Amino acid sequence: MTTLKFPKNFVWGAATSAYQIEGAWNVDGKGPSIWDTFSHKPGKIANGENGDVAVDHYHRYKDDVKLMADLGLRAYRFSIAWTRILPEGTGKVNPKGLAFYDRLVDDMLKQDIEPYACLFHYDLPQALQDQGGWPNRKTAYAFAEYARVVSDHLTDRVKVIFTHNEPWVTAVLGYFLGDHAPGIKDPPAGIKALHHLLLSHGLAYEAIRAAAKQPVKIGITLNLNPMYPATDSKIDREAAMRVDALVNRSVLDPLLKGTSPIQEFALVKMLSRSLIEAGDLEKIKQLDILGVNYYSRSVLKHANFPLVSAAQTFPEGNEYSGMWEIFPQGIYEILMRIWKDYHPSCELMVTENGVPVPDGLDFDGRVRDERRIRYLQNHIAQVHRAIKDGVPVKGYFHWSLMDNFEWALGYGPRFGIVYVDYKTLKRTVKDSGRWFAKVIRDNGIKI
Ligand code: FCB
């Protein structure tokens, strides 16, 4: 057995998001978000589930912070619900909403856990969706106002703020494919949403800086997947390249290079007025931390599908989980690619990585989730390999701290290193949680 040691001060953490864990959807002055609206519509979420209660983190945050401390987490990445702070999206601030995040942050700091606050994890205020949502450029300015309020209030204690989690998912699943809130199926709306999300990152970057009480690092987290062609044929290789442009380059290029491949898409050329206005790309390219969320790769073939003319395939003989292929070397490939193609001057971190496992309590109350341990072991080893090959990865956050509401799939997929009994809401640390705690203590893994 060899031990793969990580650099000193490597940030080991876990991540969650507001709608997936908080519950208390209409408590203490919170306004409705598009996820409240969407999940209350019949037929949108598996088994008619919703995040009204979720795992009730809003009321149980103290116990949850205690759990994080027991696991030895150095950092915790959580998201702030915009509608707790500004129930209508803009305008009147709700002090009770700010007070919740005060309590959470203060508790974390008492336990020496560094707060990594994310401003947006899919839960747009319904009031802003009623004015067009992300396809409306004005939403980007509303987001900057919200970012200013949070920065003004929390940066006396919070030193790391992420603007967005996976803007591509917000835009494409929400407005192009319609599987996520607000459930719109309109490809041009998806492309407009993506640009305005990125623009809002740039505007928020400036607003956070201007209001900050001390030097803060400002990041964004992106879902990135290596794209493989299903065969060696020219049409499949081109299909993989188009999807790569839409998923990876559409976010990496503007943030790290100040260019955008979406201007080349026929669909964007057809829009009546220019989507990307003068000065937008300069604004977007401001970043201190790039967070990589990695779960899987995609294998693509040429097919009849809007915008990209491609479809995913699932080759025989590979290993799959409840949602995706399990492909550890992909995390290495994506980190190396960012390093080689973009030479980023910002910090790099893995802000999400994990696997859904159909866990359950065994006869003795333990959760033996060996498959998750194996997944983590193999992926963390690939992160180590990237560091060894010169990529200065600064941290690794597991998705997720605890089982939670997995969007359109409801409570089916369990991603936590802490098991949650959804009837009693009791938390139980899984074997993977104990394993991860040891990784943190050792600052490394044994392989
Ligand atoms: C990511 C999301 C997170 C969760 C995991 C499984 O794309 O950021 O909320 O859904 O996938």
Structure description:
With 447 residues, this protein is α/β, with parallel strands linked by helices. Helix content is 40%, strand content 16%. It has 15 helices and 15 strands. The strands form four sheets. It has an eight-stranded parallel barrel with strand order 2-3-4-5-6-8-11-12, surrounded by six helices. A hairpin with a 6-residue loop joins strand 13 and strand 14. Helix 3 packs parallel to helix 5 and helix 13 (329-342) packs parallel to helix 14. The mean pLDDT is 97. It binds beta-D-fucopyranose. The site of beta-D-fucopyranose (FCB) has 12 residues, from loops.
Order of helices and strands: EEHHHEHHEHHEHHEEHHHEEEHEHEEEHE
State mean pLDDT (0 to 100 scale).
97
So what's the overall shape?
A: globular
Nearest-angstrom radius of gyration? 21 Å
Helical percent range? 25-40%
Number of strands: 15
Please state the structural category: alpha/beta
Residue runs with pLDDT of under 50 for 5 or more positions? none
- Alpha-carbon distance between the two ends: 6 Å
Strand line-up of the largest beta sheet: 2-3-4-5-6-8-11-12
Q: How much strand content do the residues show?
A: 15-25%
Which small-molecule species are bound to the chains here?
A: beta-D-fucopyranose
Number of helices: 15
Largest sheet: 8 strands, parallel, barrel
